[in-house]
Fold this protein.
Amino acid sequence: MNSETIISCQNIYKRFTEGKLDVEVLKGITLDIHAGEKIAIVGSSGSGKSTLLHILGGLDLATEGKVQILNKDIAELSDTERGILRNQSLGFIYQFHHLLPEFSALENIAMPLLIRGLAVAEASSMAEEILTKVGLGKRTKHKPGQLSGGERQRAAIARALVSKPQAVLADEPTGNLDHKTAQQIFELMQELNQEMKTAFVIVTHDMQLAEKMDKIYTLIDGQMKKA
Ligand SMILES: Nc1ncnc2c1ncn2[C@@H]1O[C@H](COP(=O)(O)OP(=O)(O)O)[C@@H](O)[C@H]1O
Ligand SMILES: [Mg+2]
């Protein structure tokens, strides 16, 4: 292997058990995500895309199999250690931006850095820099409710990237946007990938957008098929 592995998962199974209901969503997924790589995951609704993304990002644990983030087996870490590893190496983008409504764009984007223990002045200046990069340099004082859908999603991308993570995991980040805005958001992610060498794992319904990634995997019957 010639490039650094950021996330590695081997033979992942995920079962949800609720009373008598027992659903096996993932049935033996093996996948490596390397530095700078752009991966799309497609699949029908309910096929387990979000479940897989949560497991890759250490937000949820697999029932069986091994997940390593930067060569650390996440099942062997405490919740706190896992949280720190996530905060330091990964960024997340969701379909609905999850920005905090009562805070400005700048404050929202500075938040992950403050959690990391950076001083307010430094966090604010880094937040401003990344907001400028995503085209929101003139919107730093706006609250999420004062931004358009596309602008909010740009802000969510800025928040995911501000801590310069090695990988960004995005769950239908454009699912909520019109096609043209979705395309712009994708192009922005492409640019940032080029510039910052961030790996991107993007779950999407949109094949046209998926085709812009380096690899496309389809999740079907709990398994991954490479296109
Ligand atoms: N916390 C949970 N408890 C029980 N079942 C779940 C849970 N999360 C997801 N599932 C089930 O797992 C399947 C896959 O869900 P999900 O990963 O959200 O699919 P997708 O993102 O591809 O639409 C669905 O059948 C869903 O009902
Ligand atoms: Mg989903």
